[in-house]
Specification:
Two copies of one chain form a homodimer. The first copy, chain A, contains eleven helices and 18 strands. Chain A has helices spanning 41-47, 65-68, 71-80, 94-106, 162-168, 172-179, 194-197, 220-223, 240-246, 251-260, 279-286; strands at 3-9, 23-28, 31-37, 55-59, 87-91, 114-118, 126-129, 133-139, 147-153, 159-160, 184-185, 191-192, 198-199, 206-210, 228-232, 266-269, 292-294, 299-302. The interface between A and B is medium-sized, with 31 and 31 residues.
Amino acid sequence: MNAKLTIIGSGSALPTKNNFPTSQLLEFRNKQFLIDCGEGTQIRMRQMNLKNNHIGHIFISHLHGDHCFGLMGLISSFGMLNHTSDIHIHAHPDLEKLMKPQLKYFCEQLPFQVIFCPINPAVNEIIFEDRTVQVSSIPLKHRVPCCGFLFEEKSSDRHIIREMIDFYKIPVWQIGKIKQGEDFTTEEGELIPNDKLTLPPTSPIRYAYCSDTAYTEKIIPIIEGVDLLFHEATFMEDELFRAKATQHSTARQAAEIAKKANVKKLIIGHYSARYSHKTALLNEARQVFEHTELGEDMKSYEF
Amino acid sequence: MNAKLTIIGSGSALPTKNNFPTSQLLEFRNKQFLIDCGEGTQIRMRQMNLKNNHIGHIFISHLHGDHCFGLMGLISSFGMLNHTSDIHIHAHPDLEKLMKPQLKYFCEQLPFQVIFCPINPAVNEIIFEDRTVQVSSIPLKHRVPCCGFLFEEKSSDRHIIREMIDFYKIPVWQIGKIKQGEDFTTEEGELIPNDKLTLPPTSPIRYAYCSDTAYTEKIIPIIEGVDLLFHEATFMEDELFRAKATQHSTARQAAEIAKKANVKKLIIGHYSARYSHKTALLNEARQVFEHTELGEDMKSYEF
């Protein structure tokens, strides 16, 4: 397994019997990233026995309740469960103003710090990076400032061919440099070009999360070719007028973005409460982009 | 049916697979009263198809997250569902300070007003009444200011015996007075005592809600003889030290209160997340007070 996306909630503003409001957990490179945190996120996590010890970063796309009302309960419970690593919340700066008084009142003695990392949803920029992963904002088109997130593995080293180490008697101290692309000179002075010694690095994993948004082709250059795209599909095409009015997308529009951006796979979600069965949404999307799957609460997708 | 209590969530601070945080819906006299509103209350309501058009009053026992983190989501969704009657929130005055900025930010154009009705949890007093129902606070013993609630039907009129109206030719305009206890004088001047004309009124329905609290006998005079008592039972007796330290009760203690207060029936709940099966809690309580039932999420109790 390279990466795993778990849909915690695939609903929208009004939760339904089966769909909690939006939240997702992305796991790769031994890290866990929580994306949005609607009401009941911590409850779904308990229902799934989802381990969350490695959550250190939470990304909030925008400040509508169905994307952030679960934060207080989650943080409060993390406190009781002896979560120890600090929690960084990447969100529009207004969230800090709204949450600080609540954290002070309800979560006085947490065993970790809650650190707010303000983002500007209007621009496409790197908002988090460490040694192996980087996260960028994807400006979206919604009724309030809103952005998606592009999670990318950083380019890894080339893979050295084991047999070549023995054959050319490559000393250990040179292996690092060769993995980074350098050629090798044998003791006899023969130059061995790098491409004879190594194979190309595994292509980095890329996941793009786009919710909530009206149809906008501006995101295509940013998400071009990702391994997995989550794109909201609040409505079906027969509710296009409503999608436009509320600045959401239809299943068909989500698929059009996936097709134009040449992504490997599309998952749709953020369904309006009016759809109790989702097959029609899936069919609508698949007519445009075959590699589409339905996002479902408590289901994981490996990629 | 006289009254119906629906347990929306029977859990405590940490939600579990089956137990959402605390919330209850009490229905009687064509009214709906929501008691506490932990995270996920609106979700459970949707899961139960619970109609909530008649909720106009919400009673919050204390400001711990598991009793109030569901308020923002609930109110926000009521707005989208075109709930029209005003919502009165009876709670410690701090709640207004915490919620006002959030309501302003997330719920700008609600089709109803949210009215905060501050209560003083330290005293036993009437905090709400209308023509047929009154609600009083029950001071509890917890780590923060906390009170339970006593819901009481107001005494109804005596029942006039139909045959007596015909026999004594009682005029319609006198019936109201007789129902209220007056005697009747016939045209011939004969005095008919009230108890010959009427039967006693149906005894008023009384429900007492006591969560969260350490064992305290001070509540007994207030809840004496109620039809139904909900008393928290966070722990079992073998965790008595923990119950004391956190100012909660054991199942045995809840039953002792029920017995001493001579209530008709006890429901326990607010279970610690450590108990995946609740039978042992029920058995412990029933050893002291036989008429005990387990509170369970999404279950209704008529009384």
